[in-house]
């Protein structure tokens, strides 16, 4: 039963941090509604079974079974995942450009996951190093990828809060992304 409560706490910690970052950059509804599918039976119970506390239980499940029903469920319901925006599978799977608000929520999600798993050991440096590895395998649309790289680089240089609270910078990124 302790895995149940530990996983529930991890979800709530993640959601709290994502909301914190989303609110900074004006994504209030997304901050509140973020990852509600994690409470569905498909996602919750598989994640309890594979809970380790230091990384996503989805990764552990994939290592054990070769796939994760929780991940199929999650990525198909949460538009802040670049995998949601993959289409044209008969042509080899083509990434589509994410709407800006979901691309920005994706960044908040990355930060929230980093905070939830690293706890007090979280730093932008460790998050940036995670991003350097992640970006080598991400198959997101070129514009979404360029946005993610730019904002992660900016946060590394001036800090997370200064970046996300800077409404002029966020507006600049949005205009550049949508232009």
The gist of it:
The protein has helices at residues 2-24, 28-33, 41-49, 57-65, 69-75, 100-118, 124-134, 142-158, 160-165, 167-178, and strands spanning 86-87, 94-95. The protein is built from ten helices and two strands, in the order αααααββααααα.
Low-confidence stretches: none
* Spatial gap, N to C terminus: 51 Å
Inertia-based shape: globular
Q: Strand-residue fraction?
A: under 5%
Major sheet attributes: 2 strands, antiparallel
Give the % helix.
Answer: 55-70%
Number of helices: 10
Largest sheet strand order: 1-2
Radius of gyration: 16 Å
The secondary-structure class comes to mainly alpha
**What's the number of extended β-strand segments?**
2
How does this model look, in words?
- There is one protein chain.
- The protein is mostly helical.
- The protein has a domain at 79-178.
- It is built from ten helices and two strands, in the order αααααββααααα.
- The chain has helices at residues 2-24, 28-33, 41-49, 57-65, 69-75, 100-118, 124-134, 142-158, 160-165, 167-178; strands at residues 86-87, 94-95.
- A two-stranded antiparallel sheet has the order 1-2.
- α3 packs across α5 and α6 (100-118) crosses α8.
- The longest helix has 23 residues, at 2-24.
- The chain is globular, with a radius of gyration of 16 Å.
- It starts with a helix and ends with a helix.
- The relative contact order is 0.12.
- The model has no long low-confidence stretch (mean pLDDT 97).
